[in-house]
Write a structure and sequence with these properties.
The chain is of the alpha+beta class and 334 residues long. Strands 2-1-5-6-7-4-3 form a seven-stranded antiparallel sheet. It has a four-stranded antiparallel sheet with strand order 8-9-10-11, with helices on both faces. A hairpin with a 2-residue loop joins strand 3 and strand 4. Helix 6 packs antiparallel against helix 7. It is globular.
Amino acid sequence: MPRPPTLNDEEIMHDPAPPMRREVFRMTDDDARAFLRAAPFVHLAGCAAGRPVLKTVNVVELDGAWWFHGAVAGEKTAMLGGPVVLAAEELVAQLPSTFVDEERACFASALYRSVQLHGALERVDDPADKARALHALMVRFQPEGGFRAITHDDPVYAGEVKGVLVARVVPLRIDGKAKLAQNKQPHEVRALLERLWRRGDPGDARAVALIAAANPTVEAPGFLQGPPGARLCCALEPAHLDAAVALHDQAAAGAAAPEVVRRRLLASLAWVGAVDHTGALIGSAHRYLDRATGALACHIAVAPTLRAGPLADALARLLADHPAVRGDRGPAPA
């Protein structure tokens, strides 16, 4: 059976990223790694017995490499020692041609983010390293806990650790592309944000937030206009979670335990917010289904120094106009 091609030290040291046709779409390496780190799954591409192979795996980043587990026999083992590619992608929004022209089909397009990480696939044999990677995978994909820590010398896990394949991709380079209208004129970007907000399909609010973030010099459309010193965001991300929980705790101390607030935020029908010029979260508003009452509820929280200002009203307006809850008056904000 032919062995997979291998990477030598010279190749690893001298493999610059190829040029991108539109460099304005290129993600920074940090942003590309963050995207790959958050992907629910990734594709693993390589060669086995001279044939191309494509697999889907769950990965976790440890010590600068990307680790996964699998069966000790199979196509993935045939790729060990050879060059591989990890890839993840996200469709941000499908844009119909009618957004631009009423007749011509050639304006149909899509916005997306994609990342490819090139590297070498290595088998991990050290039991302690294998257990550490398996535990990290559990922490990532079952963050709520409910499992015993995995260690190589625990009798509960020793057999499983020994009998499973653990491999890692040692990165050579990473290429990320975020096509988010950065090549458009400011008036075109604003028009696109307005159309997506009005269309209101699932995912459109998040698309608006990503496009706005990728075009920070474009003046915000009317629905995203906030008071001076605040930039409204129509779809907050898990990265904002800790700061939002702190804001809600400050706004209504003791009203709900932090873990309850965290759960509500993640399960919200709509979650909007505001950041200051440094990117720090200064306001959070969300509408969610109260499990205890079965009714819709709404919470708005702003930084203590801004409670007397117009920020809470701006967040309430943005939340009420959110596509996921638009037209639903619901209860008064708490």
